[in-house]
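On clarity, I found the account of how folds are encoded harder to follow than it need be. An entry of this sort, consisting of the sequence and the corresponding C-alpha cells, reads as follows:
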Amino acid sequence: MKRNRVIFVATAGVAALALAACGGSSSSSESAAPAESAAPAESAAPAESAMADSGASAEAAGVPSWCGPNEITLGFADGFGGNSWRLVTTESGKQEAAKCPSVKELLYTDGQGDLQKSISDIQGLVAKGVNALVVFPDASEAILPTLKEAYDAGVVTVPYRVYPGGQDGVDYTKYIALDAKNDGHNYAEWFKKVLPDGGNILILSGPKGNSQGTDMATELRKELGDTGKYTFIGEDPFEVTNWDPALSQQVLTAAIAKYPQIDGIASDFGPSLVGALPEFTKAGKPIPALATSDGNVLGCFWEDQKAAGNEFPMMTVQTGNDHARTAIDYAVAVATGGEVPTTTAHQHQLFEDSTDASMPVQCRKDLPGDIYLSAQLSAEDQAALMQ
C-alpha cells in the first residue's frame, strides 16, 4: 500500500502577530450536523519543499474506525509553527493522518504568526483542492471569515484549540475545543490534597483574556472558593505572563515582594516557569506547591531541586500536543466517510504527581529540555525535530 505523502506549502508573509506558546480555547456552540465531504480533488501542484513521511503505515497499525473509504487530500494549516511545542504538535497531527490510507496527501502550511499569511495559506489550500482542512487559528476571530469561505466552498473545516468565534455547521464543520475547565478541576482536587488546610494561591497564564487560562482559572477559583479555605492573590482571573520565561520571572519576583506567603501556584504552561521558580529560594522561601503542565525541562528542574534539598510538591497534566490528533480524527472521519468520533473536545490527562508514587515526576536529561514526555510522539522523535 502506498504511504501517505506530506507536503509543506510555503507562501510569502508580512508582519508577525504576538502569539501564545500553546494557544487558548473556549467552549464551542452546540454541534450541528457535519458538512458533507467534497469530491476527491486532483493531486495538488508540486510544493516548494517536501517533508518526510510521518507515522506508522496502515499495514503496520491497522486502519482506525475514523478512516473511511473515500480518498482525500488533507490540509493542515498552522497559524504559527515556530516553537518546540508547535513542532511536536504538528508532527503528532501528521502521524495521526498517516494512519489513514485514504488520506493520499497532506498539505501543511505555517502561518509564521502573520495574519495575512495565515489567510493566504488557507485560501491556497482550498484552491489546491483539499477535501478537509484542520486549522490552528492563532488569529482567533480574525481568521473566522476565511474559515467560513473554506466551509462554504464544501471543504470539511475543523479549527481546534484556539476558539475562532462563529458556530459549528454555520462557519465551519466543527470546532474541537480544549476543555481547560477540566484542568482547573484537576488542579483544585490536587490543592485540596496537598494544602488541606487552605492557603494563598497565585494563578498564572498567557496573554490577557486567553480562553485557555480564563477557563482554567475560573473553574479553579470556583471549586476552591466554595471551600472557604483558600485565598486567591494576584490579578483576577490570572497574572499575565504571555507564557514567556522572562515575563514569568518578573511576575513572580513582584509577587514574592508583594505577598508574604504564597502556598500554591497554578499555571497552564509549566516549562515557562523554570527560570522563575528559583526566585523563591533566592528570597529565602520554599517553592510553593505547583500545579501546571508538563515539560522535560520542568521535570529535570524538579529533580535538581530535590537533589539540592529544595523539593516541592508538583503535579502536571499533559501539555496537549495530541490535541491535533483529536482534530485530525474528526476531519478525516467526516471527509472520508469514516466513523465520526463522539469526542469533540480535548482534555489534558493527569501526568505527574510528586506526592503519588504511581505518577512520578519524569526527566530525560539525555534529551533536550524542550520536549514533552506526555506526548504520544516518542521522546526520541521529538528530540530529532529540535535538531
